[in-house]
Design brief:
Elements: H1 4-13, E1 18-19, E2 21-22, E3 27-29, E4 34-36, E5 42-49, E6 59-66, E7 71-78, H2 88-93, E8 113-114, E9 127-129, H3 137-144, H4 148-152, E10 155-163, E11 166-173, E12 178-182, E13 188-194, E14 196-201, E15 204-209, E16 213-216, E17 222-226, E18 230-237
Parallel strand pairs: 1-7
Antiparallel strand pairs: 2-3, 3-4, 5-6, 6-7, 8-9, 10-11, 11-18, 12-17, 13-16, 13-18, 14-15, 14-17
Length: 241
């Protein structure tokens, strides 16, 4: 199964028939006005998909069951830049393996964080966060252009850093590819590594080439168009948890 729709169809056959929607402190099923608070459901399993364009295209499919309400269903939620702001109880409830012993409130968080395996990158284990993280941009650039997503689509993206407070994503665009007008929840910088892009914001169109960088405040609409095959680094400052 390599697409969200394939996973949803598979889970429906397994009895996960309810379509849940996510709120900050509960799950909602609009069809029957059912609401599940964090203590009323568990995540049986989840499937993570990396987007083939910008980070906002990434998604997680959750298989959810509730013994109290005798119901099973699915939840599709974006993560990364577009991930919804959730309460601490909801974040804890959406963790997999609910049968495991609860974590101690004083337990230290892991010092390092790595990506999970996905259909696009099944190997996983790539370090995304550490107290000190060294990255090879030439190596990342070579990887992003070797993957099927780059060969079969007009873009590809690779997350290099996913930490509490900052994210760095390498984005490659074929000539003519466009990231349509959107906003980011925090300040961003765009640094061109290869090629030539048009960066539209504040009623301006900046022409950026390799070696140039632009910054933008949070919440301002902007777009990116590849004038030629291009690669750039997107750095996003996020709210610390």
């Amino acid at each position: 199964m390599t697409t969200v729709s394939e996973v949803l169809n598979h889970l429906k056959k397994e009895g996960y028939t309810v379509d849940f929607n996510l709120q900050d402190n509960c799950l909602v099923c609009h069809g029957n006005a059912l609401q599940l608070s964090p203590e009323e459901f568990q995540v049986d399993k989840h499937y993570r998909f990396e987007g083939q364009s910008d980070p906002g295209d990434e998604a997680v499919v959750y298989a959810i069951s509730s013994n109290r309400h005798n119901v099973k269903g699915t939840l599709v939620n974006g993560y990364g830049i577009s991930s919804d702001a959730l309460s601490a109880d909801m974040v804890k409830a959406l963790r997999e393996n609910p049968g495991a012993a609860p974590e101690s409130a004083s337990a230290p968080e892991p010092a390092e964080k790595a990506n999970e395996a996905t259909p696009q990158r099944p190997a996983g284990t790539r370090t995304l966060d550490a107290p000190l993280l060294e990255l090879s941009l030439p190596q990342a650039l070579a990887q992003i252009k070797q993957e099927p997503a780059w060969q079969n689509n007009d873009r590809n993206a690779l997350t290099l850093l996913h930490s509490d407070g900052m994210r760095v994503v390498m984005i490659a665009l074929h000539e003519g590819a466009e990231l349509k007008t959107h906003t980011a929840p925090g300040p961003i910088s765009v640094q061109v590594l290869e090629g030539h892009i048009g960066f539209g914001a504040q009623e301006q169109m900046l022409e950026l080439q390799a070696g140039q960088l632009v910054t933008l405040h949070a919440g301002l609409p902007h777009s990116v168009t590849a004038r030629q095959e291009s690669v750039f680094l997107l750095t996003l400052a996020t709210t610390r948890k």
